[in-house]
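Q: I'm teaching a short session on how sequence maps to structure, and I want students to see two examples side by side rather than one. Could you give me a first protein with its sequence written out and its structure tokens following it? Keep the formatting plain so it prints cleanly on a handout.
A: Of course. Example one:
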Amino acid sequence: MSDSVSLWLTDAEMTLSAGASLASTLYHVPVTILLTGSLGAGKTTFLQGLGQALGIPQRLTSPTYALEQRYPLEHFGELLHIDLYRLTPKEAMHFIHSSERHHGIRCIEWADRLATPVDGESISIALAEHQDGHGRDLQVSFADIAIPSLDQVNAWREEFFLPHLIGRHCDAVAQTAVRFGEAFQERGYIVRLAALRAAGAVHDLFRFVDFHRGTAHREREIHPLHARKWEEIKEQYPELRHEAAVAKFLTGKGFSELAEIVRVHGLTLADSTRITTEQRLLYYADKRVKLDDVVSLEERLRDFTERYSHLGRLRESDAWYDEARKTEKELFPDGPPF
């Protein structure tokens, strides 16, 4: 399952911020970013925004004559900026082969000069003049992370006997997270909506590992077959809360990036590794959904307090509310869209 984004960028400033937003949805290296578009389409401007967001102090310029420039990065190794404008397709392929083992972020301008696709994980950025001549159309195609289909997610739900109420909650969180992601895209920011939807759909897949007497999620009568399966999962992921257990399961199934989105959605304490756009949107959406209804953070806090206060978890409720409010203000400075 793949992911793609289509944005309308009204001016150079918006192109710059779109490039910066890409830095907040990178999950691993090595990765190749392929840029196409006519002269003046905004390819270099886009990369300048990316470079700024990645902490590169100098302004990126196209290495048209030098062919490549290298910039050290704090978290992703090195950004390699390549410009193929002056090369023939044959020369371009030869030159690109020399950088195939680059272990950081490889950005290739004029990637349409390449006769064959590059190897490895990639993100394609296509910029073109908007049909009315105002601004640019941006098309982003991701081919760098694996995303399970919703059919696969539903098969997992059946395999692990996920309670119907929790499935409804997952679906509501997925839908809500996507709506918040769409609001982000309207501001010209890149968001992986397919990954966000899948993460929401699976985020509470192992919610039962946290079940205990006295919570609304605990069924009065649990089918023995379901109980045995749940105990097997608890034994397979000992001492883990459901967030970490689901993340470990997803990693084992080949969805390690999705695991990173799910891993930090928990209710309790702040997590300094919750840094990507999808991680933050899923976390916030989960705090806005009470069962399958979208509510305010205040109402969600009241619900959490009512269900868990007798278990001595008021301190946890205060912690997640403060973190959720902080995240809300960071994501939507002018207030959430709904």
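Q: Perfect. Now a second example for contrast.
A: Example two:
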Amino acid sequence: MADRRVVVTGMGAVTPFGVTVDPYWDGLIEGRSGITPISLFDASPFDVRIAGEISAFDAEKHLDRKIIKRSDRFAQFALTACDEAVRMSGLDVQKEDAERLAVIFGSGIGGLNELEEQFTRLVTKGPSKVSAFTIPKLMVNAASGNISIAYGAKGNSIAISSACASATNAMGEAMRHIRHGQADVVFTGGSEAAVTPLAVAAFAAMKALSTRNDDPARASRPFDRDRDGFVLAEGAGAVIFEELEHAKRRGAPIFAEVIGFASTSDADHIAQPSESGEGATAAMSLAIQDARISPDQVDYINAHGTSTPLGDVAETVAIKRVFGNWAKKVVVSSTKSSIGHSLGASGGLEIIATILAAKNSVVPPTINLDHPGDGCDLDYCPKVARDRKIRVGMSNSFGFGGHNACIVIRRWD
């Protein structure tokens, strides 16, 4: 079977800027920050007291109470984002062949809120007080399972967990499923809700997080000289991938074409990126080959750009290795500067930003980039959005464990 073309027909977002895509995109383009002091728990004893949290999320506005009772916050985000994506796509699942609908969704950690809550019950009240819903709520595949149930999707339903590359790996597998004839429609993306006491304490213990507690809005500063770690965030980004002819037959809106994907492993260190950028270089190069384009056809890169001292330099090195002289001409930006790092959800949110950048011919900025750091010498679109015709966009995601994933989209005219 010849490769089938894959398009994006719907998008949904839950971010620190609000629920739905519009406030997310507006916040990015306006160069605002969604980083605030933590309010989800008492963070006063912690070394890190800031995050990109979704404090305004009210599950009862979006989900049935029965679903809320049986799902962790990360799955609630996923279902909410998927609901927007499905509505945007105009997909009527009742008219579809259920066995041709698939769900491939990513999360790096899964139901950490539930895990912490039930462990506290265990040690304070005893084993009889642990909820019967604990396992169904904390398992990483709870998001994909609940999405499958919600829409009656009887095709493949799986969870992808590759740390911060989870959503991009999920979308890559979704693209392959459609290309190779295994599905016509895939609900994909990623979700994470890890702004919890344990996660904040653990990431802080690794010295991975920014400690700019007195200036939250300026804490996430990818590629800047004064960056001191990433800002933990939560959220979800969902997209509907669909086979082109299937989308055309039902008159679906088409926002972009998904043209390339690749993933690799550093096989080097469990938490640090390879300084040579070798694995990231391979992922980007292979994704470009898969898209059947040349490097100089890429107009925009939504960088992984987490605001860590090692990671930002390693990604810059990799971009220069892949793009050569074109590296100075392609525009790069990190939307994590505005919303922080939502771990396994980040790729889902960043593909949406990349698609909208192409659709609207504007590059979202890297805010807080006052003085580029040593080794950070590309065009990172600092501080303010920039008008730019974008035909092809690339989104990078790299994760603990040495995971590298890259996905490429083309503007749909």
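Q: What should students look for in example two?
A: Point them to this: Residues 148 and 331 are 37 Å apart (CA to CA). Also worth mentioning: The chain is about 35% helix and 20% strand.
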